[in-house]
Amino acid sequence: MIRYTDDIAEVDEGMLHGFFVGWPQPPSAGQHLAVLRGSFRSVVAIDGTAARVVGFVNMISDGVLTASIPWLEVLPGHQGKGIGTELMRRVLEGTESFYSVDLLCDAPLQPYYARFGMASVPGATLRHPAALRGRAVRGDGRPTG
Ligand SMILES: CC(C)(COP(=O)(O)OP(=O)(O)OC[C@H]1O[C@@H](n2cnc3c(N)ncnc32)[C@H](O)[C@@H]1OP(=O)(O)O)[C@@H](O)C(=O)NCCC(=O)NCCS
After folding, report:
1. What is the CATH number of domain 2-121?
2. Which of the listed residues 78, 112, 115 should we mutate to test ligand 1's pocket, taking the one with most ligand atoms within 8 A of CB?
C-alpha cells in the first residue's frame, strides 16, 4: 500500500535506500534527507508495509515566481505504476501562480514531462560531482545539524 506525504518529518535516513541508481557517486542517505528537508517542497511515496520511501520528488523555489524540480526518482521495483505521475501531480499543485517551473532531463523523458504541460527547452547546468562526497552540509557550508 503506497501513501504520499509532503511531511518530511515522517522520513528518516533508514527509509532512504536504493535511490540514485547508476550514479557513480550517489549522495549519502544523510545528504538525501537534508535535501528533502531543505527543499521548498518535497513529496515522498512511502510503502507502508516496508516502512520505506519508494519514490520522491523535490522542488526548490523563491516562493514568488520561479521554481525548479531537481530530482524525481521511483525505485526500479516500483516503476511503471503511476507513482512518478502522482509525485509530479502533487509537487506541481498550486504552482500555477509561478511564472516558471524548470526541470532538466534527458531527451527520452521529455514526452513524459509533456504530460504535465511542461515544454521542452534548451538548458545549461554547472555540476560539481565532488559535492556528493562527504557529509551533508548546506549551500553556505554549514553542517545541517
Ligand atoms: C522517470 C520515473 C520517475 C517515472 O516514474 P514511474 O513511477 O515509473 O512513472 P509512471 O508510472 O508515472 O509513468 C510511467 C511512464 O513513464 C515512462 N517512462 C519512465 N521512464 C522513462 C524514460 N527513462 N524514458 C522515457 N519514458 C519513461 C514509461 O514509459 C511509462 O509510459 P506509459 O505510461 O506510456 O507506459 C522513473 O522511471 C525513474 O525513477 N527513473 C529513473 C530516474 C529518472 O530518470 N528520473 C527522472 C530524472 S529527470
Report:
1. 3.40.630.30
2. 112
pLDDT tens, position by position, 86-110: 999 999 999 999 999 999 999 999 9
Alpha carbons 113 and 122: distance in angstroms, whole number: 14
Ligand 1 centroid–CA 3 distance in Å is 19
- How far, in Å, are 18, 46, 54, 135 from residue 40 at the CA level? 24, 20, 20, 21
- The 3-state DSSP class for residue 4 equals strand
pTM: 0.94
| 33 C-alpha to ligand 1 centroid (Å) | 22
The total number of residues written for the chain in this structure: 145
Distances (CA, A) of 67 to 16, 29, 75, 84, 94: 24, 24, 24, 19, 12
Where in the chain are the domains? Answer: 2-121
What's the rounded Cα separation, in Å, for the pair 145 and 113? 35
* 76-99 exposure pattern, b = at least 16 Cβ within 10 A, e = fewer: eebeeeebbebbbebbbeebeebe
